[in-house]
Amino acid sequence: EPEVTQTPSHQVTQMGQEVILRCVPISNHLYFYWYRQILGQKVEFLVSFYNNEISEKSEIFDDQFSVERPDGSNFTLKIRSTKLEDSAMYFCASTGQTNYGYTFGSGTRLTVV
Amino acid sequence: GQSLEQPSEVTAVEGAIVQINCTYQTSGFYGLSWYQQHDGGAPTFLSYNALDGLEETGRFSSFLSRSDSYGYLLLQELQMKDSASYFCAVRDQSSASKIIFGSGTRLSIRP
Q1: Three-state secondary-structure class, residue B82
Q2: pLDDT tens digits, chain A, 113 residues: what are they?
Q3: Do B45 and A56 touch (CB under 8 A)?
Q4: Is the alpha carbon torsion for B23, B25, B28, B34 positive or negative?
Q5: Is A63 left (phi over 0), alpha (psi -120 to 50) or beta?
Q6: B86–chain A Cβ distance below 8 A for any pair
Q7: Which of A33, A42, A107 sits opposite B102 (nearest CB)?
């Protein structure tokens, strides 16, 4: 069964550093997303991406964050100048044209120290 | 905006049936989804309802009543592996490009 692949699975970074989280969505999917989940809390929407541009972003997704699809297969989330409160599990997801069910990757656990 | 309410915890016995309810408020409505998440794992898509009624997929069924802004997930013949968190999620017309998750219901199964 097709999978969404995320790397790395764990990332520890110092406060103020930049991190890039990587995702390879399912190849024939058209819609891509980043969500995050702080430990024990709900899954929060960050950004959606379609046709090589951002469709929508949440209040969380401020100037500190950016997304890119550099080569037609990878989908990246960059967090500049990380803060302690950015520590969370970050999930990438993709959907096909039906846009009904999302396939999530296994996530990147980001720890900012 | 959107808001969803679901119970924070439910406990059930192996082999039994359990229903997890979800009520929502949206400015428009496209559909209600359900996702399962095991501890440390990714959310996994279970079902989607855009129209009123019951959708069945094996041991899991999902129901929607748009007039009541209400849905539920029904799990039958519970197995220990069903212990997980279950999230309802809504798409609405103001923002069809994303789904918004509820806070999740932690289901614990007792032998």
Answers
A1: helix
A2: 789 999 999 999 999 999 999 999 998 898 999 999 999 899 999 999 988 899 999 999 999 999 999 887 899 999 999 999 999 999 999 998 655 789 999 999 999 99
A3: no
A4: negative
A5: alpha
A6: no
A7: A42
**Residue from B30, B61, B68 nearest B46 by CA:** B61
Whether the bond between A8 and the residue before it is cis, its omega within 30 degrees of 0, is yes
Measured between CB atoms, does B44 come within 8 Å of chain A? yes
Bridge partners, B73 (sequence order): B20, B62
- Residue B34, token pair as written in the block: 């359900």
Q: Does A91 touch chain B (CB under 8 A)?
A: yes
State the burial class of residue B48 (Cβ atoms within 10 Å of its Cβ: 0-12, 13-18, 19+): buried
Residues of B in contact with A43 (CB under 8 A): 35, 37, 43, 87, 101
pLDDT of residue B92 exceeding 80, the answer is no
Q: Which of B46, B92, B97, B101 should we substitute to test contact with A (largest number of A Cβ atoms within 10 Å)?
A: B97
Question: B7: helix, coil or strand?
Answer: coil
Q: Helix, strand or coil for residue A84?
A: helix
Per the CB < 8 A criterion, the answer to whether A100 and A1 are in contact is no
